[in-house]
Predict the structure.
Amino acid sequence: AQKVTQAQTEISVVEKEDVTLDCVYETRDTTYYLFWYKQPPSGELVFLIRRNSFDEQNEISGRYSWNFQKSTSSFNFTITASQVVDSAVYFCALSEGMIYNQGGKLIFGQGTELSVKP
Amino acid sequence: GAGVSQSPRYKVAKRGQDVALRCDPISGHVSLFWYQQALGQGPEFLTYFQNEAQLDKSGLPSDRFFAERPEGSVSTLKIQRTQQEDSAVYLCASSPPNQPQHFGDGTRLSIL
């Protein structure tokens, strides 16, 4: 069965601290995608990144970086030098199989609420 | 606008009433998804359309939930005989094939 676990329910940091959000997934498929979305208080889910199961290369985008490790079924997200505007709920998600045929429905974790204080 | 548009933004209904939630996807997006997000939880998949065809409705919690997309664009999620456990935020997302989903702001449904 497919499942995404975000063990950290809430994290609170002070501005400029680095913070890592953990994500562990379960799937029997060899072909899948992993995602991170940000949900600010306004409620809209904002896409941050998608990685496919064949690409374990880490990625950096500005202050954001992602570490994908198939050996531990983890896809962790690090924010460097956090800012107050980073405060939001962050969701990790999994999509299995051939995207086009199955639509690519997302299986979300429970989310991690990040609070960055000035 | 250029994003996914959902209406109404908020909906309050009495238990037993029927409700209809609307989703306007991004123009040209073939795929459309509905998700239900309970308070403090991650979104859960309800149903998926490819153009006007409903290809997956495995997440609909009961036969009181019905979704349609008759012309392959706007979609409506209907809930009949609402119950208190239907209270949640309903999110709509759209995407081109094999691309990440873009989400709307959601409709917050409260059943009294």
About this structure: Helices of chain A lie at 99-102.
